[in-house]
Fold hydroxymethylglutaryl-CoA lyase.
Amino acid sequence: NLPKKVKIVEVGPRDGLQNEKENVPADVKIELVNRLTAAGFPNIEAASFVSPKWVPQMATGREVMEGIARKPGVIYSALTPNMQGFEAALAAKADEVVIFGAASEAFSQRNINCSIAESIARFEPVAKAAKDHGLRLRASVSTAFGCPYQGEVPLAAVEDVVKRMRDLGCDEIDIADTIGVSTPLKTKAVMETAIRAFRIDGLSGHFHDTYGQALANIYASLELGITIFHSSVSGLGGCPYAKGATGNVATEDVIYLMNGLGIETGVDLDAVVDAGAYISQFLGRKGASRAGNAILAK
Ligand code: HMG
Ligand code: MG
């Protein structure tokens, strides 16, 4: 008894592109978001309001948010590590802001330059401001399945940070496999911990595909009743502060899986393949989605 319906959050314009060395101009990002909107995603992570010294590729956030053709009902999200990011996201009319922390101290330091406890203190005013302005609030918990610097991450650490995010009033919490190391039994153990610490209907699986396990991890999560998943068109991406990590699971592969399982997504697979072909052509390389490449080869 898998869920009948899931929400796919397309993170390609943010997680997918943030690590690209070549500058991707705002108009290309805008066209990508518009094509993804046309494909039917209910939620698109479109920008990140972080320090441009840390992640230069995301410096165009405001232009992107102002340039996209918004479809009513679609949630356009932006990452906001602190109040400076929140103010920028608010000015750019983000529908949802994403605070992002980690379950490992080492990753928190490398990614956002502070301890987990300090990050929660920075998120408090962001969470409050989001509520005051009627914006949705989401939290991302990196390295929940393993850390590139410290290795194993105890379940108790995941539980602790999920509870802190819950207490900030998050509408949704993402459990992230930053470096794509999880396998299904591990995924179930981590997700069960997160479900106990939060609630099942607000939890999402954010799986990178470094070790080729992301679809298996999604299936394991479906078996637990998780109904929100993140994916990146064409499998774009990687995290600048997680060396060697590849992209998120490819959206085309996830939609193909859901279609095969009879699980409703509201997303048109051919339109995603089209968006993937567009950005792959711009980047000058073949897309990383197996399903996408198979469909293009037909
Ligand atoms: P810091 O240096 O500790 O911050 O960085 P600070 O408050 O001391 O400020 C230093 C400078 O940054 C100042 O500028 C600030 O104005 C500026 P200066 O005076 O030197 O010119 N600054 C900002 N500029 C624009 N927007 C802001 C902002 N905040 C400060 N919001 C900070 C702390 C968090 C800012 C920094 O570490 C940073 O930007 N890190 C980037 C982290 C990041 O974007 N990582 C990738 C996304 S997370 C991810 O990919 C994981 C995820 O996908 C889930 C998963 O897979 O695990 C979500
Ligand atoms: Mg990620």
User: Anything to note?
Assistant: The CA atoms of residues 50 and 199 lie 29 Å apart.
